[in-house]
Write a structure and sequence with these properties.
Strand order of the largest sheet: 3-2-1-7-19
Number of domains: 3
CATH topology of the largest domain: FAD/NAD(P)-binding domain
Structural class: alpha/beta
Distance between the termini: 22 Å
Radius of gyration: 26 Å
Strand content: 5-15%
Bound molecules: flavin-adenine dinucleotide
Helix content: 25-40%
CATH superfamily of the largest domain: FAD/NAD(P)-binding domain
Length: about 675
């Protein structure tokens, strides 16, 4: 367990720095024909960006052949086949010349060249704030800009330590950053393994639905994923490998669930209590607590009358019972949201009958890459072409950042409101309806059941390659849309009748709005965070709360993403802010930091005002996990990613209260 009170020296730190691993490449030894074959499979805009970086020569960006338009899920800039062929030919010359020169390390690109490349790919201007965000995210110079920036001569007070609750992606990120900065930390994790979401959700078909080359830490090498949207076992492996590589595991108390954390004002420390399955208690003390418990970690078991009477196996998707063999079984899948949508197609070939119980249909965005494997050419480029994977990440980020936010802006004067939210929403609806019609045109009954009557993006959007509707059209599959009335020993009763079943799978989501539940978090003067929130969770920057000094929440209130983007990007933002807060504490010699009540209320009110302008909380939206029991939305971020990144970049001294000197 790390209990160091002073900072490690530079030599010690070198082994654990995050460094330039995202820029590593293997020299090319292939012949021209092999390289040319690989280039055929690449995104030409990302390829050209890479070659410009390798050569330092921007002339490839300054010819008449250039991307025409940048749109979602299209990676060739809408250029013609002839234009793409010509650019590939020019790129081949650049790549082979670089190979012949022995693949020298490219020089760090200038900010001007990076900006010019961004705008070339985007086929238009990139605003200053976004350009700064993307440049930091790509980190083409390997400057590691998101490290905790402690001054070289900063001395960490003896006894200063951070306790991380939870080792999902957020907890792991925090551990890596603390270790890199030489700050002592330990972790308490209720599971026996790393990964959180990507450890627990082992259900068939589980995969990410944000592209993996963006849903991954910005500082890791990109060539780790077999699929564009990695499957759960591979994602879990990704986190496990990182944990092992950096020796994070030795800092973890595995199999202990934190039940309580209490701030001791006199000591300026938190006391954290955890319990193991066998009842063993663990008590730890720390200067700072990072809560990385996730917001989709506590399964929501629905209150279905008679569920306990069912004679067969019943389990939640996040607690999949792998001992239950579904082969030849009649399976009831309750829930057709993000998990149900992945489970159905994955089990349909094995089961004798599948009955899907759906409360509301989901919008699906057509995405040909959703189940596709990363091609050989792209693996090759990510391994051998410096910058290729960074520019591919840039493209993913560019397409998923904030363009969707306007689709959910509520325009009450819009004639079709609230079926669609505004003109852009109506246009998007048409695209998505066409996607359904193309698959189901001759089946109007099913079409009616699977077509939402609310605006696109107002509830969780799904990525789709057609597998869901293919599944629903199978002869042994039934989609039931009338409400569940009750459950008995042999099945599920709805108005349409009794549905006999052998196994019930609950794909019913999580207790998302009950932030930090069921832990007792007790701040100054014995106030519990649950009482302070009173069912309306909020946090300054989604991270910190007045009266709870030195306490930082990851994936906290107001940080969930509903307009695309990656939660991992958000947690990297949160870690920047938490790191800056630690820096303020350590360098300033303060005991504690927290947001002022005024800043907290200002932030919360601004966020709620923004949320109320969007469709997510509109009364017409039913059965949405975005909404809390009172019908309001507390979990989501209404901000543009660039705004959240800006807010979390530094600790604003005017918004914070710093208490006393460190003891
Ligand atoms: C099925 C599924 C698919 C998803 N797909 C996407 C996606 O495509 N894109 C996206 O951006 N996001 C997605 N998400 C959201 C996902 O939860 C986040 O992306 C991310 O994994 C959250 O990481 P985290 O570390 O904050 O929380 P988690 O991954 O939930 O990890 C929390 C950790 O804390 C531990 N813990 C909790 N309470 C305690 C306690 N009291 N004591 C000790 N340990 C505790 C848990 O055991 C767990 O290990 C998905 C979520 C689910 C459930």
């Amino acid at each position: 367990m790390s209990q160091k009170g002073v900072r490690m020296d530079t030599a010690q730190l070198d082994g654990i720095r995050i460094g330039r691993r995202h820029l590593r490449f293997d020299p090319i030894t292939d012949d021209d024909a092999t390289i040319a074959a690989h280039l055929e499979q690449l995104s030409v805009p990302a390829l050209i960006a890479s070659v410009v970086g390798i050569t330092g020569d921007p002339s490839l960006l300054r010819t008449a052949i250039r991307p025409r338009e940048f749109i979602q899920n299209e990676f060739q800039g809408k250029m013609t086949p002839a234009e793409l062929a010509e650019l590939r030919r020019r790129a081949l010359a650049g790549v082979t010349a670089w190979r012949d020169a022995g693949c020298p390390q490219p020089r760090d690109p200038s900010p001007e060249l990076i900006r010019e490349t961004m705008e070339w790919i985007n086929a238009g201007p990139v605003p200053d704030d976004y350009a700064a965000l993307y440049a930091e995210e790509m980190d083409l110079a390997g400057a590691n800009p998101r490290a905790i920036g402690l001054a070289g001569d900063a001395v960490i007070p003896p006894g200063f330590s951070v306790l991380i609750i939870g080792l999902g992606e957020a907890g792991l990120l925090a551990a890596l950053r603390l270790q890199e900065a030489g700050i002592a930390f330990e972790i308490i994790e209720k599971n026996d393994d790393v990964g959180g979401t990507w450890y627990e959700n082992s259900y068939p078909g589980c995969r990410v639905d944000v592209a993996s080359h963006f849903y991954s830490y910005s500082f890791t090498h990109a060539d780790q994923f077999s699929d564009y949207y990695a499957r759960q076992p591979e994602l879990h492996r990704y986190f496990r490998t990182l944990m092992d590589e950096f020796g994070i595991g030795e800092h973890v108390h595995w199999g202990h669930e934190v039940t309580r954390a209490e701030w001791d004002e006199d000591a300026g420390r938190w006391t954290v209590t955890a319990t193991a399955a066998d009842g063993t208690r663990l008590t730890r003390s720390a200067t700072v607590v990072f809560a990385g418990v996730g917001f989709l970690n506590r399964p929501l078991i629905p209150d279905l009358p008679g569920l306990e009477r069912f004679a067969g196996p019943v389990f939640h998707a996040a607690q999949w019972d792998h001992d239950v063999d579904l082969t030849g079984a009649r399976v009831a899948l309750v829930g057709a949201g993000a998990s149900g949508f992945q489970i159905g197609p994955a089990i349909v070939d094995d089961v004798a009958a599948l009955t899907v119980f759906q409360r509301t249909p989901q919008w699906m965005a057509p995405n040909p890459r959703y189940h596709a494997a990363v091609g050989d050419g792209e693996h090759w480029a990510m391994r051998h072409l410096p910058g290729y994977s960074r520019w591919y990440r840039f493209m993913l980020m560019l397409q998923s950042s904030d363009k969707m936010l306007d689709l959910v802006r509520a325009d009450e004067n819009w004639p079709d409101f609230p079926r669609t939210a505004n003109a852009a929403s109506a246009a998007r609806r048409e695209v998505f309806v066409n996607w359904i019609t193309d698959q189901l045109g001759e089946d109007p009954a099913l079409m009616a059941k699977v077509t939402p009557n609310y605006p696109p993006m107002a509830k969780r959007m799904l990525q789709d390659n057609g597998s869901w509707l293919r599944c629903l059209r199978r002869d042994h599959v039934e989609l039931v849309t009338d409400p569940i009335l009750g459950i008995d020993e042999t099945g599920i009763l709805t108005e349409s009748g009794h549905h006999d079943t052998d196994v019930i799978v609950l794909a019913t989501g999580f207790r998302a709005s009950e932030m930090l539940w069921p832990m007792d978090i007790i701040g100054r003067d014995g106030v519990s965070i649950a009482d302070w929130w009173d069912g309306k969770p909020a946090a300054y920057n989604g991270i910190s709360v007045p009266g709870f000094p030195n306490f930082f929440i990851f994936s906290g209130p107001g940080t969930g993403l509903a307009h695309a983007g990656s939660v991992m990007f958000m947690t990297e933002c949160q870690m920047r802010y938490a790191g800056a807060a630690l820096q303020t504490l350590i360098e300033g010699g303060h005991r504690s930091i927290e947001p002022s009540e005024a800043a907290y209320h200002r932030y919360r009110d601004r966020l709620q005002t923004e949320i109320s302008a969007l469709m997510w909380g509109h009364p017409s939206i039913e059965h949405s996990w975005y909404k809390a029991a009172d019908g309001n939305v507390y979990v989501l971020s209404p901000w543009r990613s660039v705004d959240y990144w800006t807010m979390t970049g530094a600790v604003d001294p005017d918004d914070h209260v710093l208490n006393g000197a460190h003891r």
